[in-house]
């Protein structure tokens, strides 16, 4: 995942090759894990299993709060294949401490990595 300014090519990037960087793996119900092999780029990727006993549970990966003087973009690749695939949502916590849905995709998306690039107006994120 990476954050990119809309006007500048600077990035705060985490490839998840060895760690979660500054992302918080919030194991409220089920934790995310780093897996090796089959990633879109590099060797590792962040993974969670949403089937079986994990059905209908939340999997939270949260960023720290960013203070920005201009908008940025959250860019990431996701892979969602399966007959009972759930939802992937990106939520932003605004200055009024209200969560807003910034991105949502549901169900099986096929057997390929898909790219998402979401404008962020300076909020804390949960993926």
From TrEMBL:
It comes from Symbiodinium pilosum. InterPro entries: ConA-like_dom_sf, MAM_dom, MAM_domain-containing. It holds the Pfam family MAM. This is ZAN protein. PROSITE patterns: MAM_2. GO terms for cellular component: membrane. Residues 12-127 form the MAM domain.
């Amino acid at each position: 995942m990476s954050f990119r300014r809309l006007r500048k090519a600077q990035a705060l990037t985490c490839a998840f090759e060895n760690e979660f960087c500054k992302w918080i793996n919030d194991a409220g119900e089920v934790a995310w894990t780093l897996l090796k092999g089959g990633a879109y780029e590099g060797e590792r990727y962040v993974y969670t299993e949403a089937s079986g006993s994990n059905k209908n549970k939340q999997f939270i990966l949260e960023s720290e709060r960013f203070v920005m003087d201009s908008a940025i973009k959250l860019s990431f690749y996701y892979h969602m294949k399966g007959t009972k695939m759930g939802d992937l949502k990106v939520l932003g916590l605004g200055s009024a401490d209200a969560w807003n849905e910034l991105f949502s995709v549901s169900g099986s998306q096929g057997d390929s990595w898909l790219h998402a690039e979401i404008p962020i107006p300076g909020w804390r994120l949960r993926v």
